[in-house]
Amino acid sequence: MSPIRRILFAVRDPAATSQPGILKAIRIAKSFGASLELFHALASPVFVALQPLTGESVDTLRIKAVDQARKRLDKYVAAARKHKVDLAYSVSWDYPPHEAIVRRAHKSRADLIVAEGHRGRRSLRWLMQMTDWELLRASALPVLLLKNARIYQRPVVLAAVDPTHAHAKPARLDADILAAATQLSGALRGRLHVMFANNPPLSTFLALGDPAIDANTIAMTCEALEQQGRTAFDRFMGSMDVEPARRHIVARPPAQAIPTLARTTKAAVVVMGAVSRSGLKRVFIGNTAERVLDALPCDVLVLKPRGAKARVATRERGMRIVTQPATPLVA
Question: pTM for the full model?
């Protein structure tokens, strides 16, 4: 991960009376010695009748909404100044929100995007998290997703790596994950832990293709692959300055191992990689970052492989204007 000099924080609702995410982002920026920009995308559609009852033009509505949001963000300049953080803010009409965030981050040359994870009733959580997932997929920049408002106090930072590359991640992504976790734990004056979910995927055994293979053969194969995983992890860590007590091998799938160990170590941040997938392949296979996201009790920093490209158009979409349908005639 590149040095963190500019951070973009995505503000979900400038009108909210409490903004713990902004206050946490200010502390994060202070730890890195970085500048901070608060950004809000006005993404809701504007329904415009032929003769608006308010008598205000579309241009007036557009300007008023931006001014109101900017005034609400302006009060955090003083809070940032107390921590000696250079804070700016911006508001624009653009949609959908995850694309608007990525576009603004690119325009402001941010090194890190920070956003609050969506929370809600479990029955609706999948829908609320859609923006979170789409942001992780679309952004080429690292994204720090805040799961709670707790300020970091010498936090445990847990790096999740896969030295066997069993989950379709490029080899050098592990090195980037470890480097980012080291950088983060150093800036926050925390403690670094590294983990590997050493669980050979079921596809390994299905690929053997011989129906005559018995349980003993599968067990022996599994044991050999697990040993290869342990060897790969030891080789990867090499001369890394991480004491043995903070190196963890967990014989469970990543989606189970990562949240479990995060709780055990009381991690404040998990650093992991994600490879975007599109179309039916993504729907059926899924993404480890997505499956871990809901289960993690802490914040998560997600990195993309080097050379990843932002999956959004570069041009802002502007205000989304929807004309109200005409009232149907009554026969």
Answer: 0.86
